[in-house]
Specification:
Blueprint: E1 3-7, H1 25-38, E2 46-50, H2 59-69, E3 76-79, H3 86-92, E4 111-116, E5 119-124, E6 127-128, E7 131-134, H4 137-149, E8 156-159, H5 170-173, H6 180-187, E9 193-198, E10 205-209, E11 212-216, E12 223-224, E13 236-237, E14 242-247, E15 255-260
Parallel strand pairs: 1-2, 2-3, 5-8, 8-9, 9-11
Antiparallel strand pairs: 1-14, 4-5, 6-7, 10-11, 12-13, 14-15
Helix pairs in contact: 1-2
The structure holds fe (ii) ion.
Fe (ii) ion (FE2) binds near residues 9, 11, 81 and 200.
């Protein structure tokens, strides 16, 4: 029963001196999230990181990120978000994920597929360098079509940074995935895809794309204020940080849990 843990929008941030303070909020938040995963009663099969892993795209930020993740004895599969540097991300995780680009360009979009205990995780970069919105574009859509066609009967999770559905918060929806309709049409041809998982919006939400259930993941650091008015406020809020746990490939529909960061033990047993 593959268990995929998802962290998103970690935003490890260096200060003005280019160094990462060990007491900074994102560092403490990631350390707590790692402790939460280590305290789960069952070890997950992998961790997927759906972008905005660091804040400024600096080497010191990636160095701290990988050090903080190192206690997790499971594979780690990263994707960039709009704050990441593709080349530095590739270098930071080169020994943990198949991140090489086909033409050797370290700034090429990150895309790869891995098998995890009889299921597939397909990771596809939706970032547009220098722009905040998301887009796959014709080349990545073609790659995705071919990649999914290669294993039509294997339960599959597709990971992206930008959500392929509007969550109802206006300023975020203006920065969503622009070619979500094309992605939806593609997914309708590949019914083995059980879940599309994303980040970017710093809060948990559930929607759909092409008939597939799609979710967004909380940030391990700060959550965005749920303001559905128009134009609404673009603000962070004090909601608890968290992560997602996806249970897939069981022969039953995939299940997603949203877990607040923390170490939670049984309080009392129920009959
Ligand atoms: Fe973010």
């Amino acid at each position: 029963m593959p268990i995929i843990v998802q962290f998103s929008d970690i935003h490890i941030a260096a200060g003005a001196d280019g160094e990462v303070d060990d007491r900074s909020g994102p560092v403490r938040a990631l350390r707590n999230a790692v402790s939460s995963v280590l305290a789960l009663p069952e070890r997950p099969d992998c961790l997927v990181l759906t972008g905005d892993l660091v804040d400024r795209g600096l080497p010191a930020e990636y160095a701290r990120l990988t050090a903080l993740l190192s206690p997790l004895p499971i594979p780690v599969y990263p994707l960039p978000g709009k704050h990441d540097d593709r080349a530095l991300l590739r270098a930071a995780f080169a020994d943990r994920a198949p991140l090489e680009s086909p033409d050797g360009d370290p700034q090429a979009p990150v895309r790869y597929a891995v098998e995890i205990a009889g299921t597939r995780l397909v990771c596809c970069d939706t970032t547009v360098p220098g722009r905040p919105h998301g887009e796959l574009g014709p080349e990545l859509l073609d790659w995705l079509e071919a990649t999914l066609a290669a294993a039509p009967r294997t339960p599959t999770v597709l990971a992206v940074h930008h959500p392929p559905f509007p969550i109802g918060v206006r300023f975020l929806d203006e920065l969503a995935l622009r070619d979500a309709a094309e992605l939806g049409a593609l997914l309708a041809r590949h019914p083995q895809v059980e879940r599309v998982i994303s980040g970017h919006v710093h809060r948990a939400a559930v929607g759909a794309v092409g008939g597939v259930t799609a979710v967004t993941c909380p940030s391990t650091y700060r959550q965005i204020y749920l303001d559905t008015t128009s134009p609404g406020q673009a603000a962070v809020t004090g909601e608890p940080a968290g992560f997602a746990v996806h249970i897939v490939g069981t022969g039953r529909p995939a299940v997603t849990h949203f877990v607040p960061t923390g170490v939670y033990r049984p309080l009392m047993h129920v009959d």
